[in-house]
Structure formats: structure tokens, C-alpha cells
Automatic annotation (TrEMBL):
<dbReference type="InterPro" id="IPR022555">
    <property type="entry name" value="DUF2577"/>
</dbReference>
<protein>
    <submittedName>
        <fullName>DUF2577 domain-containing protein</fullName>
    </submittedName>
</protein>
<dbReference type="Pfam" id="PF10844">
    <property type="entry name" value="DUF2577"/>
</dbReference>
Length: 137
């Protein structure tokens, strides 16, 4: 009877599709290795990476106007000088290809989801600790 209760409990847990959230650090970018803790280092065959953490392409459109300055509320932490050496003040760019070179690199801190069963891990994003949010390299 104990085994039947145990099997029923395991099935109930599996039916909820539990996922564990883990934190890790990139130890090597190529081949990709992520250290979760001292006894668990994940290699690329166990990892799925969210596209925004990889080199990828996007098609974009840009509507640009060149004012003398951008006010604080529009861009960055302070007004920016946006003078143009080209002399134009407006342009529209449609369907331009932009390549993001945003691959994981050594030292990046990452958030992972462990898929049920523990054999696949999804790297969902980089993260910073609270005190590091406003520090820039």
C-alpha cells in the first residue's frame, strides 16, 4: 500500500510540471559551460539558450528625428547632444537587418530553469545583484 501511495504522489507532482529556478555563472563561452554550484557544471549538450542571449538577427524599422538635445525623460540619465555631421534632421529606415552580438561570455551571471527530470536546462537571462544594477563597465 505504501508503494501505491508513493507512486500516486510522484504522479501528482509530475502532473504539476514543476520547474526549478537556478542561478549560475558562465565559466567558458566556447564550448559553453555554466557552473551552478561546486558539484554541478553544465555543458552545452544539457543547455537550451534563450535567443536574446545569442548572436541573432532582427528586422527593424527606425523613425529618427535629430533635435538639438533629447530631454532627460527620453534617453539616458541626462540630456544628450545629438548634433549631426550629416546635416539631415529626419529619416525613416524600414526593414533594416540588425545583428545582435549578445552571446554569453565568461563571468556572466545567468538564471536557468531546470526542466522536469533534470536533464535539460533553459538559460533564460543574465542577471545582476541589486547593488550592481547601476554600475557600468
Amino acid at each position: 500500500m505504501y508503494d501505491n501511495v508513493k507512486k500516486a504522489a510522484v504522479k501528482a507532482v509530475m502532473a504539476t510540471n514543476p520547474v526549478n529556478v537556478l542561478y549560475g555563472a558562465v565559466e567558458n563561452a566556447k564550448p559553453l559551460e555554466i557552473r551552478v554550484h561546486e558539484k554541478l557544471k553544465l555543458t552545452e549538450e544539457f543547455l537550451d539558450i534563450a535567443e536574446h542571449l545569442t548572436r541573432h538577427e532582427r528586422i527593424i524599422s527606425v523613425d529618427y528625428e535629430n533635435p538639438k538635445t533629447w530631454p532627460d525623460s527620453v534617453i539616458g540619465d541626462a540630456a544628450k547632444d545629438t548634433s549631426s555631421s550629416e546635416g539631415y534632421t529626419k529619416y525613416n529606415l524600414k526593414y533594416a537587418k540588425m545583428v545582435f552580438e549578445n552571446g554569453l561570455k565568461k563571468g556572466d551571471k545567468v538564471v536557468l530553469l531546470r526542466v522536469q527530470g533534470g536533464h535539460r536546462f533553459l538559460v533564460i537571462d543574465r542577471y545582476k545583484r541589486g547593488e550592481e544594477v547601476w554600475s557600468y563597465q
